[in-house]
Amino acid sequence: MTNSSCKNVYAVLNSTEKVAIGTICVLIALLSLLVNVFILAVIGCSRNLRKHPSYLFMGNLALADTIACSCFTINFLEFHLSKPGNSFEKTQYLLKLGAVTMAFTGSVGSLLVMAADRYHAIYKVSTYKVLVTRKRALMAIVTLWVTAALISFLPLMGWNCPTCQSCSDLFPYVNHNYLAFFASLVLVVIVLILVAYALIVWMAHKHEANLSAEHPELARMRVDIHLAKTFSCVLLILLVCWLPVLFFMMTDVVTKGLSRAQQKAFAFCSTLCLLNSGINPLLYTLRCRELRAALKSLVAGLRRCNGCSSQLVTNTSV
């Protein structure tokens, strides 16, 4: 099968759909990049934040989402919007797909690492600072990216199909077994995130129940209810953004062939993963008091620098 005919199997969007999905991708990607790069700048410019493992994990999430936004948007639009006759070489495609997969795997993996970090911060308060040090946090981040790279580039290393038409109806040259492996892995990670946050809420509920029993006269905000609402929102967005894509992947694995309508639906649902990368900073980072304080400090510093520059220009002119 030639590259051109291979591309025709997967390039299922018409001109109107191409315009729609291109607009959606560009808008989401620009907003996501802006927010994530801003988070990286705030954490990078704050010496205090860089010392804390929790903010290293947040910075790693922002880095993963920044890479995901860039790689996904460029490669996704090139794949769906370019002409069918363009080059569709196997190694080149699997290399690009591996980069996108690695970025999203790093993003979802970072969410799991952050959930585990919050769990230890609450469950093992007395030993948290001893267990979770800056050095161990950096080692965890490196391990995460190495694991993500190994998982993502397995198709390039040989776990693929000889022709684009013999395997997945969603990804050229991708083996059904690998697709099932990757989708199952992401589902397991999501379940582990859900379990970690459920345990955090449960422990907060036990703590609040004990306080209420000891001091029934005190009127106070229920921390467990607040956490339950927050984590419910986090998990709902995670599930909405990832489950449609995982559903189509597993459908591709268990059925003999997907229709063009299903392929089109998968293409549009894929943009939800991109949207998740833009929402993550709002859910996980900008809600933190210390990071907002660092942000205010950075903005104030930039204003002072701008004021000094304006004053210097005025004095020079005079």
Automatic annotation (TrEMBL):
This is Cannabinoid receptor 2-like. GO terms for molecular function: cannabinoid receptor activity. Belongs to the G-protein coupled receptor 1 family. Residues 35-284 form the G-protein coupled receptors family 1 profile domain. It is a multi-pass membrane protein. One of its GO terms (cellular component) is plasma membrane. Gene3D superfamilies: Rhodopsin 7-helix transmembrane proteins (1.20.1070.10). The keyword rRNA-binding does not apply. Pfam families: 7tm_1. Keywords: Cell membrane, Cell projection, G-protein coupled receptor, Glycoprotein, Membrane, Receptor, Transducer, Transmembrane, Transmembrane helix. The chain crosses the membrane at residues 20-43, 55-77, 97-116, 137-158, 178-204, 225-245, 265-286. It comes from the Eukaryota. It is found in: Cell membrane; Cell projection, Neuron projection. InterPro entries: Cnbnoid_rcpt, GPCR_Rhodpsn, GPCR_Rhodpsn_7TM.
